[in-house]
Each structure stands twice: as C-alpha cells, then as structure tokens.
Amino acid sequence: MSGYKPTLSQLRAGNLFASDARHILLYGGSRSGKTFEIVRTIVLRAMGCESRHAILRFRFNHVKSSIGLDTLPKVIKTCWPGLWEQCTLDQTNWVLKVPAMDGGVSEIWLLGLDDKDRTEKILGQEFSTMYFNECSQITFSSVETALTRLAQKTKLRNKAYYDCNPPGQNHWLYKQFIQKRDVASNKPLRNPDNYVSMMINPADNEANLDADYLQSLEDMSVAKRKRFKDGLFSAANDNALWTIEGIEQCRRTEADPAFKRILISVDPSGCNGDPDSRSDEIGIIVGALTEDGYCDILEDLSGKHGPTAWGAIVIDAFERYEADCVVAEVNFGGAMVEAVIRAAALAAGVQMPPFKEVRASRGKVARAEPVAALYDQGKVRHAGGFSVLENQMCGMTTGGYTGEKSPDRVDAMVWLVSSIFTAMTKVNSGPQRAPTINLGRSEVRKVYGGQRRR
To answer: Are residues 248 and 191 in the same domain?
Structure first.
C-alpha cells in the first residue's frame, strides 16, 4: 500500500504538471515538498511509456547525493512499494532504469553541469523530461544549452521542470517565470502561457516537518527568512554583491593621483576556438595602488580576443602605463598564459614584463565577496565609467552570477584588487589592516624580475 499522502499544495502542483505548459517552476521556502513532487512526476512519466528523463543540478556530486541516493529511492519506495526492487541504478553512469507499462524500460539520468564530459553526455542524448533542480545556481546559458536536447519523440509531451529557493529579482528565473519576459531580449515572451510557476512553502508541508525545524526558519535573519521560510524573491539588490548606486559612490572624480604600483590583470577564457564564435571574453583590467592607499580601476581592455591579440593588448597597456607587473589566472591556460605574454613582448621588441601567476582555489563568489566589501568601505574607485564591467558586477550575487555568459571582466578586476590588497581579501583574515603589498616600482621589479627595456 502506498504511503504517499500529498499535501494540498502538492495536489495543486500535480494539476499544474498536467497542464499544457511546457516549462513549470515550483519556487518557495526550504523543505516544502517541491523536489519530492517533481521527482514523483518524473517517475510517473517514466512508468507511462519507454522514455528518457534527466535530473540536472549545477554540481554532479550534489545531484548524486541529494537525488540519486536520497530523494529518488525515497519517492519510489513511498509511492510504489515494491517498484524499487524492479529498478536498476547504475552507479557508474548514474542512470536509473524503470520498467514502463508498455513493456519497455525507461531511463532517468542524473547529470551535473559542472563538467565538460557530463555536459557532452547531455548533448549526446534526447530526453522527454528535463528537471533543473536548485536552478537558482544554474546559469541561463547552461539551461538553454541543455534544453536543445528536450526533443525525444514519445507518447509524452516534452516538459521542463524547475525548482528553487527564490534568489533575487535580478535572476533570470524571476524575469522569465514571474515577469514573463525573454531573458536575452527583455521583451515579453511570445508564448507566456508556456511558462507557469507556483509557490510552495514549508508551512504547506507542516505535517511532514519537525516543529523545531519550522522554528529555526522563523529565527533566521530577515533576508534568509524571506527566502527559506516565506519563499519570496528578494528585491533586486538584496543579495547583489554590487549595486549601480554603490558603484557610483566609488567613482573617482579628481585627476590621477600619485601611484605606488600599477598592475595589468588578465583572466583568460576557458573557451577554445574562433574568438568571434565563442561566448567568453578575455578579462583585461588595469589598476593601481595610489599613494594614499586606494585601488583605482583605470581601464577595461577586455574583449573576445585571440591569443595574439590579447597578448599584444597586455604588452601595450604595460608599456603605456609603465606598469609594474602582469597578474594572470592560470587555471585554464597554465604555462600557455605566460607563453602568450612572452611572445607578445618579443614581437613588440620589449622585455618580458614581471609576471605573477594566480590560481583559483575558491569559487567566484568567495573570491569576490572580500573585494565587494572593500568597495563598500570606499577603498576601490573607478577612474571613469566602465559600463560592461559594472553590469557584470551588478550580476554577481551571494548565490552566484546571474548574468549571461561568464563574468570575465569581474574575475580580472577581483584578481587585480586581491593582488593589491592581499591581506584584506583573505578569507577569515581577521581585523582588516593596511595592505601588505605596498612596494614601489623599483622594489617590485627586484621581486618579480629585472628592469624592462624602453
């Protein structure tokens, strides 16, 4: 006998799933039954006829542990006693095979979007259902790419399901499902009835939750309570690391001050191929430590450049600003990054500039948060307007980057500020203190390399 006792909200969600809408979002607070109900619907679809379905999260380890080893077996054992024993879970490829009523076998794939090989698995198959679990963590670009495979021909109507604890109103989910606007063009959706949503909150699932858990949600800060208890999208700026108003307050209006140190920061793209056809840019930011202790952003030279072009841009900027050092992330390029700069210096007839490698051991948000705090304190200033960089900055939130493509300009800016204010941007570095990197040009060259040829 089934132990499934749906809440009233889960019954309403079931009616929504049965509608003609192709894209369906359940959003709301934590532990409200969203994931359980969507997984149950996917299993029902898999049982209906031979078909293929995908459950996706940003990180594969998370979908494996939270869905594959927890929710998926729990749903099947609760709703259809005895069915789990008829299923087969391949824990190498993480595919669950489910017997279908037409005599065939359906597949439920568990996939992550954080790895190129796993993404290729998605692109190599066609699916009847795609479920983007915790999709506030997933970029719109990744969702768009995955949806190209929502194309399997079966008796089922192909559908995409989404769930989330609501992020900020500047997230693509809010624009597409609540405002009913196209994410790329910001124009009204051509078929708004195809995108429907429903709020489900912990109070709707009270019968299945411990009273202490509900109280813990009540005791959260206002911002967290709105998101995880009340299921509300926060105002656009509530969880943004930067706002345009805050950036305006950091605009430098006076003439160039005296500089102690000038850096060129490079964030190479992780993409290969023709620069005109790929999505990511090369982040190139020029900045300086001033004599009075500020970090000034001087120029944004980022763009879709091939190696020869961006190497030449870096060397030209280094010479024009009489800079002290080139700082470059080498996670993707490794020795290639230094080689490109060296070749560009040789082509320009100048010596290889002092070069410092930086490696990303933390996520973008973890690296950006200390830098955002320095902006709040007025320690970082913009010497002019940098619209594209500043738009990317406003897309950085505590939940991740909400803009299109990759925030390469922000990454380069973060590396630059972090290299100037090393002590201030360390995680858990304790009370803030004066910068530890405050060498003049001659001292910097002693550390990073010899005199450059003019």
So the answer is: no
